Amino acid sequence: MSQPAPGSTGTNDATTLEPASTGDGKGPHTRATAARDQHQGTHTATGSSPEELRVLVVTGLAHKNERHYGPLADVASETTLVCLDPDTDIDGATAVPVPDIGPRIVRIVFLFFLALYEGYRNEYDAVASISLVPYGIYALVLKSLYGYPAHLGIIGIDLDHHARQWYGAGPRWAFRRFNVVSVPGSDHAERLVRCGVAPTRIEILTNAIDVETYRPPDDDAETDYEFVWVGRFSEEKDPVRFVRVVAELDATGREFRAAMVGDGALRDDVVAEIDRLGVGDRIDLVGWADDPVSYYQRSKVFVLTSSRDALPLVMLEAMATGLAPVVPAVGSIPDVVGDGHNGLVVADREPATFAAAMARCLDDPDERDALAANATDVRSSFSLTQAGEDWRRILATLEA
């Protein structure tokens, strides 16, 4: 969740992209879209078409399989998920769940042997995974044993996590063994190139949202909050900073309400900071919400205070619901949010800087509404349909 590191990644780095003007007055192309367009012109399948491919998926995702692998099932001939979640049910896909035995760690180990057996008893054209440890490692074993081209998907802060915890020769070696590595945006793509992954093996995979669920409210819908913050109460999301931002804005005398949707390890710290700064009348702590759409629809501006991030799903959901985002330039966020076009990108993460941007949204509702209207463009560029097109390109690259 950090900003792209400066410096060139090499003259042949096809994923190092700068925003290009559209020439239509609507603001710059996102770097993610530019990367996707570029790859569409560089990868051509030499074997079967995606509609003829049989894909084995090794996954430990719980309630996210539909969002990540539903678009794959829409384009592949056959999709089989060896999975931990016994309730996995995706149209067009077959689920092979691990028996509900023992603690999760035991089931993760069992998943490995179940994947080996499934790869042995049936023939596949490729194996797909998300997250290097352990599912990507399992995919590499299947590649080694059965010759299946292997895909690794990096989402969230996976790359940052590995880099901070135990990054070294092992993970770098593993990244280079995959036939394709998909990432949510240009920041991760550039990092992978610096790890030695060939640019031709890196693809953008849309962090898809359900645009039927996350849609703008009716024009006459009531608004309860000027600002909404959504996420885990964890160090990298920095919820305590949002409390300090609210205190800065409160000191200006403006009237507003804010909601914090989430929970986590830092909840006590958040409560203590609210009490210390005396902003309990400004912030509603509403707790965790599996589906925060109602809070988006009852708010005007989405605020993100993360110190590290990839391409936050909550930001995309909020934009699809018609909220103007106030965000820092971390991870691949600049791929999507253009300052003054479809949101406000703060120059730094100081509370006063955030507060100034939020005050701008309060003081100029016309500008805020224009930003929000432009923000809804993510409904087409980050839809499940677009994710399906990305999977077509990934499968074509696997077969190249």
UniProtKB/TrEMBL annotation:
Keyword annotations from UniProtKB, A to Z: Transferase
Pfam families attached to this UniProt entry: Glycos_transf_1
The keyword Chaperone is assigned to this record: no
Skewed-composition ranges (Polar residues): 1-19
Annotated InterPro entries: Glyco_trans_1
GO molecular function term, any single one: glycosyltransferase activity
Tree of life domain: Archaea
Region described as Disordered: 1-49
This protein's record includes keyword Transferase: yes
Entry-linked Gene3D superfamilies: Glycogen Phosphorylase B
CDD domains noted in UniProt: GT4_GT28_WabH-like
UniProt feature coiled coil, ranges: none
PANTHER family: GLYCOSYLTRANSFERASE
UniProt-recorded name of the protein: Glycosyltransferase involved in cell wall bisynthesis
